[in-house]
Prior knowledge:
By secondary structure, the chain is of the alpha+beta class. It has helices at 11-16, 33-38, 193-210, 286-299, 313-329, 334-340; strands at 51-55, 61-64, 67-74, 80-86, 92-98, 118-123, 130-137, 141-148, 167-169, 180-182, 190-192, 215-217, 245-249, 266-270, 273-276, 306-311, 346-348, 355-360.
Amino acid sequence: xxxxxxxxxxxxxxxxxxxxxxxxxxxxxxxxxxxxxxxxxxxxxxxxxxxxxxxxxxxxxxxxxxxxxxxxxxxxxxxxxxxxxxxxxxxxxxxxxxxxxxxxxxxxxxxxxxxxxxxxxxxxxxxxxxxxxxxxxxxxxxxxxxxxxxxxxxxxxxxxxxxxxxxxxxxxxxxxxxxxxxxxxxxxxxxxxxxxxxxxxxxxxxxxxxxxxxxxxxxxxxxxxxxxxxxxxxxxxxxxxxxxxxxxxxxxxxxxxxxxxxxxxxxxxxxxxxxxxxxxxxxxxxxxxxxxxxxxxxxxxxxxxxxxxxxxxxxxxxxxxxxxxxxxxxxxxxxxxxxxxxxxxxxxxxxxxxxxxxxxxxxxxxxxx
Length: 369
Ligand SMILES: [Zn+2]
C-alpha cells in the first residue's frame, strides 16, 4: 500500500492524519491539512517527503527523524509483538498500524494518553510477516520492536522461583471472544510471560462460560518493569513492579460495561483509606468474578502461584458467597475454593472500590527493551 492510499475519507486515514477527533473537520471540508500535504499536487514544490524505512527481523531499533515516517516492521506470524516509539514525552503527533484489510487485532486501549513511549502489543495473525506503521513526530525518536514466539514461552511450572522471564505487552484482544479490553496506556500493560499466559486463558474461559461482556484490564507494570507512571515521576501504586501484579475491573451485571469504575459509595475513612460504605455495593457480577479468580488460582503454576488477591471488603464478601454456588455447580476446583475462603489469599484492602488486584509470586520479569 502506498502513501496515496492513505488519503481519502475512511476513518483509518483520518486517524493517520493526526487530527484529534474532537477538532477534526468533516471529511469533505478543506480542514485536514496534514492529509493535503501528502497529495502530490501539480505545481506544489514543497510536498514533504515521507521516509519509507524497514525494521528487519535481525534489528531491534531504528532511529527516525522528526516528521512522518512509514516503516515496514518485520514480524513472525503468531508471535506476541510489542512495537514502541521512544523519545521525548510530548514528541508524538500520530502513530498507527496501517491495516487496510483489518487483519491485525484492534490495537487501542480505552485509556491512551498520547505520551511517549507509545507502545502497542498484539498477536501477529497467521500469514502476516510485516506490520506497516506510520509515525509522525515533532522530534527524532527510536522505533523499536520486541517479540516473543509463543512456542518458545516457558511451560507453566517449568520455572523455579529464581529464574526470570521477559516482560511482554498484554496483547490487544482479537475479538470479544477473548473476553477483555485494555484499560491503561499500552506502556503500563507489561507482564511476565507466564502471568500473561494464565490470565489470557482465564479471561477466555470466563467468556466461554458466561457469554458476558469483556472485562477491562488495568495497570500491570511499565514496559521497563517499574511501577506504572514512574516514567512521569508519579508512580500510582505501591506495588506493580516486574509484571507480577495486575488490576482487573469488576465484572458488571448492571447493564453497563465491565470497566474500571466504582460499584459502591466510596468513603474516606481517614487520610489514606478510601473504602466502600458498607451495604452500598451494586452491580458486581460476583459469580463471574469468583469464577475468573478460581481459574487464575487453579491454572497458575506452583512455582509462580497467585499469592494475593486484594479488593474492597464489600466485594470480598460477595466473592466468598459466590464460591459456594460455584462449588455446587462444580465450576471451581478445591484449590481455588480454598484460596478464596476465609483463611486464603483474598484480602480486603482500601483503594480497591473499582477493581481487584491480583498478585503472582516468583521473580520479577526483566525488561526486554
Ligand atoms: Zn493494583
